[in-house]
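Entry:
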Amino acid sequence: MARRIDVLLPVRLARRTSPAAAGDVLAQRGVDVRLLAVVDTGPDGDDDGSRAWLQDLARHDRRVLVLDGPGRGVGAALDLALAAVEAPLVAH
Protein backbone atom coordinates (compact mmCIF):
# COMPACT_ATOMS: atom_id res chain seq x y z
CA MET A 1 0.00 0.00 0.00
CA ALA A 2 1.37 3.42 -0.97
CA ARG A 3 2.01 6.02 1.72
CA ARG A 4 -0.51 8.84 1.84
CA ILE A 5 0.80 12.39 1.72
CA ASP A 6 -0.90 15.79 1.49
CA VAL A 7 1.10 18.52 -0.23
CA LEU A 8 0.34 22.13 0.74
CA LEU A 9 0.59 24.69 -2.06
CA PRO A 10 -0.10 28.34 -1.24
CA VAL A 11 -0.88 30.28 -4.43
CA ARG A 12 -0.95 34.04 -5.01
CA LEU A 13 -0.81 35.51 -8.49
CA ALA A 14 0.84 32.31 -9.73
CA ARG A 15 -1.13 31.38 -12.84
CA ARG A 16 2.07 31.15 -14.85
CA THR A 17 3.84 28.78 -12.43
CA SER A 18 0.89 26.81 -11.01
CA PRO A 19 0.80 24.23 -13.84
CA ALA A 20 4.44 23.24 -13.29
CA ALA A 21 4.09 23.12 -9.50
CA ALA A 22 0.86 21.10 -9.57
CA GLY A 23 2.19 18.85 -12.31
CA ASP A 24 5.30 18.02 -10.32
CA VAL A 25 3.25 17.10 -7.26
CA LEU A 26 0.71 15.01 -9.16
CA ALA A 27 3.43 13.17 -11.12
CA GLN A 28 4.86 11.57 -7.97
CA ARG A 29 4.91 7.78 -8.01
CA GLY A 30 4.91 5.34 -5.13
CA VAL A 31 2.77 7.59 -2.92
CA ASP A 32 -0.91 8.38 -2.67
CA VAL A 33 -0.66 12.15 -3.04
CA ARG A 34 -3.26 14.87 -2.58
CA LEU A 35 -2.64 18.51 -3.49
CA LEU A 36 -4.14 21.16 -1.19
CA ALA A 37 -3.91 24.39 -3.14
CA VAL A 38 -4.80 27.54 -1.19
CA VAL A 39 -5.53 30.51 -3.44
CA ASP A 40 -4.74 33.58 -1.37
CA THR A 41 -5.79 36.74 -3.18
CA GLY A 42 -4.30 39.03 -0.56
CA PRO A 43 -5.95 42.08 0.92
CA ASP A 44 -6.51 43.64 -2.53
CA GLY A 45 -8.44 40.63 -3.88
CA ASP A 46 -6.22 40.25 -6.95
CA ASP A 47 -6.33 36.95 -8.82
CA ASP A 48 -4.58 36.34 -12.12
CA GLY A 49 -6.66 33.32 -13.06
CA SER A 50 -4.93 30.96 -10.62
CA ARG A 51 -8.18 30.00 -8.91
CA ALA A 52 -10.00 29.20 -12.17
CA TRP A 53 -7.10 27.11 -13.46
CA LEU A 54 -6.80 25.15 -10.21
CA GLN A 55 -10.57 24.61 -9.97
CA ASP A 56 -10.56 23.22 -13.51
CA LEU A 57 -7.71 20.90 -12.55
CA ALA A 58 -9.67 19.77 -9.46
CA ARG A 59 -12.69 18.96 -11.65
CA HIS A 60 -10.49 16.60 -13.66
CA ASP A 61 -8.33 15.18 -10.87
CA ARG A 62 -9.88 14.06 -7.58
CA ARG A 63 -6.49 14.40 -5.86
CA VAL A 64 -6.71 18.21 -6.02
CA LEU A 65 -8.52 20.29 -3.43
CA VAL A 66 -8.75 24.06 -3.92
CA LEU A 67 -9.27 26.23 -0.85
CA ASP A 68 -9.94 29.96 -0.66
CA GLY A 69 -7.20 31.63 1.34
CA PRO A 70 -7.88 34.09 4.13
CA GLY A 71 -6.12 36.94 2.28
CA ARG A 72 -3.48 37.38 4.98
CA GLY A 73 -0.39 35.95 3.32
CA VAL A 74 1.45 32.68 3.01
CA GLY A 75 1.51 31.81 6.72
CA ALA A 76 -2.24 32.08 7.08
CA ALA A 77 -2.73 30.18 3.81
CA LEU A 78 -0.55 27.34 5.07
CA ASP A 79 -2.44 27.27 8.37
CA LEU A 80 -5.70 26.89 6.45
CA ALA A 81 -4.29 24.06 4.35
CA LEU A 82 -2.84 22.35 7.41
CA ALA A 83 -6.30 22.31 8.98
CA ALA A 84 -7.57 20.36 5.94
CA VAL A 85 -4.86 17.69 6.05
CA GLU A 86 -6.06 14.08 6.23
CA ALA A 87 -2.89 12.14 5.35
CA PRO A 88 -0.37 11.03 7.97
CA LEU A 89 2.41 12.79 6.04
CA VAL A 90 2.49 16.46 5.02
CA ALA A 91 4.78 18.33 2.63
CA HIS A 92 5.13 21.92 1.54
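The mean pLDDT is 94.
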